[in-house]
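User: Just a sanity check before I run the rest of the batch. Below are the structure tokens for the first item. I only need the designed sequence back.
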């Protein structure tokens, strides 16, 4: 054994000196701890915002603007006090629109322009409500009408002329199936980005279409055929759900292209924190804060709920607007993804060469 053996040589060179603070920070930023700590705060904030957004819109719905039809001379049947009492009880949120005939008012109700009709009845005032227009609004109108009738002494007959289906007494089923389509839509896109990362742009769009069609069919089949909660116009409801899933999936793909691994943040914020509470599915738009009521119709969840609601309860009166909203979000998302596809973290071009060529 030589004299040099068993003795430690002093460290020398760049590898021997202690790392500087800047080098330590650079090394730390490359570790998994930075995104993990960031996620701690993001998840905590998301939990609070998620609870707050739904509680804010659903815990205490307040009437803000309720369109109402007034047929003929309601005041001649003692309705003057009743109408005044309704406006007072609803804090002047009732917006009265005169109609010459009951048929005209009913058509306005079918087109979802009014939520309640006040007309002369056989005895006093007849109040027609539409449960299908929104269970929360219908319940509020019925309860308020009964209280006002008792307070004013005006004879009032309250009738639900468009009730909800028996399997959906609270009117929430359409909200839940739309919510399922929205969430599974972007979760599907997330899973494609993780487990099918090598898909090229056209392949990624094609598989998004495929799982949207199958997923929409599955939701409609379970709710209608298996559970029997709703009697759906099956093909129309299936296609609306599929369109929603595709739009939601492509919205995530767009953000994934622009923001990489943090794409979940704007997707969750847009679709879940803002879009679902303002969709009008759980709380009808006349009871939502006015800004949310307007914004919600321009977002995919609100468009999906509106299209589905009209398809199920107002057949023959479907509007193009919710489909145009979904189409616009899909088109923008696909365009952004395609134009900046080189920035998307997926695709075979981004894989290591030995992995891309291996067979």
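Assistant: Here's the designed sequence for the first item:
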């Amino acid at each position: 054994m030589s004299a040099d053996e068993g003795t430690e040589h002093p460290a020398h060179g760049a590898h021997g000196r202690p790392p500087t603070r800047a080098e330590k920070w650079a090394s730390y930023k490359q570790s998994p701890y930075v995104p993990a700590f960031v996620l701690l705060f993001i998840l905590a904030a998301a939990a609070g915002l998620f609870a707050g957004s739904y509680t804010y819109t659903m815990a205490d719905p307040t009437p803000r603007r309720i369109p109402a039809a007034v047929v003929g001379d309601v005041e001649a049947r003692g309705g003057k006090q009743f109408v005044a009492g309704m406006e007072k009880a609803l804090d002047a949120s009732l917006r009265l629109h005169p109609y010459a005939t009951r048929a005209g008012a009913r058509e306005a109700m079918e087109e979802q322009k009014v939520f309640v009709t006040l007309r002369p009845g056989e005895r006093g005032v007849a109040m027609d409500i539409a449960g299908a227009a929104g269970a929360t609004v219908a319940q509020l109108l019925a309860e308020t009408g009964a209280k006002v009738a008792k307070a004013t002494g005006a004879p009032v007959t309250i009738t639900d002329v468009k009730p909800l289906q028996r399997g959906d007494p609270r009117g929430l089923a359409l909200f839940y199936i739309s919510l399922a389509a929205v969430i599974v839509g972007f979760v599907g896109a997330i899973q494609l980005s993780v487990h099918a990362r090598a898909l090229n742009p056209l392949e990624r769009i094609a598989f998004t279409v495929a799982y949207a069609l199958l997923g929409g069919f599955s939701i409609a089949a379970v709710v209608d055929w298996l559970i029997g909660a709703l009697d759906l116009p099956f093909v129309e409801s299936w296609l609306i759900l599929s369109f929603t899933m595709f739009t939601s999936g492509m919205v995530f793909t767009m953000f994934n292209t622009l923001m990489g691994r943090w794409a979940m943040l704007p997707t969750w914020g847009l679709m879940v924190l803002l879009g679902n509470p303002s969709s009008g599915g759980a709380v009808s738009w006349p009871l939502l804060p006015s800004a949310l009521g307007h914004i919600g119709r321009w977002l995919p969840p609100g468009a999906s709920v509106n299209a589905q609601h009209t398809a199920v309860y107002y057949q023959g009166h479907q509007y193009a607007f919710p489909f145009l909203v979904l189409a616009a979000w899909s088109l923008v998302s696909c365009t952004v993804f395609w134009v900046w596809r080189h920035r998307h973290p997926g695709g075979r071009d981004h894989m290591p060469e030995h992995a891309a060529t291996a067979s």
